[in-house]
Hints:
The chain is α/β, with parallel strands linked by helices. It has 10 helices and 11 strands. It folds into 2 domains: 5-104, 3-Layer(aba) Sandwich (Udp-n-acetylmuramoylalanyl-d-glutamate--2,6- Diaminopimelate Ligase, Chain: A, domain 1); 108-234, Udp-n-acetylmuramoylalanyl-d-glutamate--2,6- Diaminopimelate Ligase, Chain: A, domain 1 (3-Layer(aba) Sandwich), CATH 3.40.1390. 32% of the residues lie in helices and 24% in strands. A 6-stranded mixed sheet has the order 5-6-8-9-10-7. Strands 1-4-3-2-11 form a 5-stranded mixed sheet, with helices on both faces. Belongs to the GTP cyclohydrolase I type 2/NIF3 family.
Amino acid sequence: MTVRIQDVVESLEAAYPPELAESWDAVGLVCGDPQAAVQRVLFCVDPVEATVDEAVGFGAQLLVSHHPLLLRGVHGVPADDPKGRLIHRLIRSGIGLYCAHTNADTAAVGVSDALAEAIGLTVTRPLAPHSAGSATGLGRIGSLPAPEPFGRFVQRVAENLPTTAWGVRGAGDLDREISTVAVCGGAGDSQLSAAQAAGVDAYVTADLRHHPAGEHLARGAQVPALVDVAHWASEWPWCQQAADVVGAALPDTVEVLVSTRRTDPWTAHAAGAAPDSGRTPA
Length: 282
């Protein structure tokens, strides 16, 4: 049986229905012939030079990414433009590109489920369901196998996600007992109020901003403690989930691979001077 790009697309869209995508999003097949044969598929978070290099090296006919390449409208893809250069290289290399973004974020089993599983949570429900009782929606709520101090929980998150220069940051009492946890893959400070309303002990997400985080913590000791991770790291576990979707749906003649290229943009981290060093803020 010859597997074609369209077959891979159909398996992905059964798991991550395009109609779940936000109206502003750009999901689906970006380039490639739906009727082209596929033997190898690479899964990644970001469609960038590094992952295209990896797809070429792997001999892939399809690259599946979480983040869109052409999220905002464009009027051309010249080869001297960074995104245009990628499109030209993919086409010359016979590689299609498919993107599953906010539809993968909110699917019944999607990005946040993969994040929750990676850090050892048993998922119970969406954090922000599309409707009452819905299995779809943004974020997930789950529980740990056993309660543990917040300091140990922060370490748990760091041990189970890929290492980045950004690292893993915690905000809260290190001795606080953590049992129930909300997670949201990607930038999730818009869901701080949902995490608080859910009554969880901690909230894990990416790209937490100073003011929303500070205002959240100022509400008192009962609000969820916060764990902030790198955006890329929070979404990378989804790549294996998506690869498993395709692997289960299609014959063994299709080989799937999860990208190992760290495409988080941050490349260095410095802790700075210790508080007791005698230095004061400028």
